Write a sequence for this structure.
């Protein structure tokens, strides 16, 4: 699988995407990350990527054509694959990204993540992109970010960990088994400021049905 990031800040993304499990998946060629910056496709001598919005308002808006050209360049690098690519567009009004959506994206060979900045991207870019490949709009969390790089990295992370062999065992994908947000490890008892903190007894019983019931309640 290849993730194509269209972003103005490759360095901000690559530090995270080169570390830990994602970094190992890249080294083992289970995934590939490519970058294109819209700045390489501007047609003015200043390298200006943004303009004032029509209708007024604060901030600046990324212009459409550099973004579209960057996506086109990204997809030119893909080898012949049977499955169509998908383009991800980030929007507060988009579909909430969750584990089910991550499972759907894991079926694609190429995912293009368009990372907007400032007040967003000229809406006409999205219309143009729909002529290239299907466009899916996502909202990642309910917070507002300064750019779409953080949501894009969240999608890369969530999708990559679903791919065969990335986590070693399929059972390591928490959402495919009964898991809990509360987890414990050794030692059994920790003492801190004269108070003892113990591991719940049920986790020490070895009774899988009871343990699953406890985890389901958390």
């Amino acid at each position: 699988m290849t993730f194509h990031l269209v972003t103005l800040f490759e360095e901000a993304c690559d530090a995270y995407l080169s570390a830990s499990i994602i970094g190992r998946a890249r080294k083992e060629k289970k995934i590939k990350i490519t970058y294109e910056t819209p700045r390489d496709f501007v047609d003015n001598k200043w390298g200006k990527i943004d303009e004032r919005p029509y209708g007024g308002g604060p901030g600046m808006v990324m212009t459409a054509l550099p973004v579209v050209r960057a996506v086109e360049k990204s997809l030119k690098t893909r080898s012949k694959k049977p499955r169509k690519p998908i383009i991800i567009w980030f929007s507060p009004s988009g579909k909430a990204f969750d584990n089910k959506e991550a499972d759907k994206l894991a079926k694609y060979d190429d995912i293009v993540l368009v990372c907007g900045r400032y007040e967003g991207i000229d809406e006409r870019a999205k219309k143009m992109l729909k002529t290239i490949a299907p466009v899916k709009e996502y909202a990642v969390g309910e917070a507002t970010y300064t750019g779409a790089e953080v949501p894009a990295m969240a999608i890369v992370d969530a999708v990559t960990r679903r791919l065969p062999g990335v986590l070693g065992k399929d059972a390591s994908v928490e959402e495919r088994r009964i898991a809990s947000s509360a987890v414990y490890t050794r030692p059994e008892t920790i003492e801190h400021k004269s108070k003892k903190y113990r591991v719940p007894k049920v986790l020490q019983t070895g009774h899988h049905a009871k343990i699953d019931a406890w985890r389901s309640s958390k």
Notes: The chain is about 30% helix and 20% strand. The beta strands are 2-6, 32-36, 50-51, 61-62, 86-96, 110-114, 135-139, 189-192, 195-198.
